[in-house]
Amino acid sequence: AQKVTQAQTEISVVEKEDVTLDCVYETRDTTYYLFWYKQPPSGELVFLIRRNSFDEQNEISGRYSWNFQKSTSSFNFTITASQVVDSAVYFCALSGGLNTDKLIFGTGTRLQVFP
Amino acid sequence: KAGVTQTPRYLIKTRGQQVTLSCSPISGHRSVSWYQQTPGQGLQFLFEYFSETQRNKGNFPGRFSGRQFSNSRSEMNVSTLELGDSALYLCASSLIGQNTGELFFGEGSRLTVL
To answer: In the predicted model, is pLDDT for residue B20 greater than 80?
Structure first.
């Protein structure tokens, strides 16, 4: 069965702190995709990153970085020097198959960044 | 370009009624998928349409149905509403629906069932 676990329900940090959001996934597929989405209070999910199962290179985009480790089935997300605007709910997701947009979402981590 | 548009944004219904939600994808996008978001169950996949054909369906009862029109606009319908159907319903679109790119989500339709 496919499953995504985000064990951290809520994280609170003070601005400029670094924060890591954990994501652990389960799948029997050999080819799959992993995603992170951000959900601000307005409700829409905003795409942050897509990673395929054959690419374990870490990725950095500005203050955001992602660590993909197949050996531990983890796809963690780090925000460096957090800002108040980073406050949102973050979802990790796993592709629900090939040739489909179906996603299996984790339960989300609510990040609160205080000034 | 315009994003994914969902209407209505908010609605209140009573048990037993039915509801239709609409989703206009980004121009040129042919794949539309729907998700239900509740505090208890989180984000759950409802169904996916590509070129007017349902390509995938989640584990929801038959009261939940959808369709896609030739212009890629999509509607979902929930009949015989139950209290547990109260949720944020999110629509997402993509070019070809093969997880090759990002999904673009709308702001959702928040349904309250009384």
So the answer is: yes
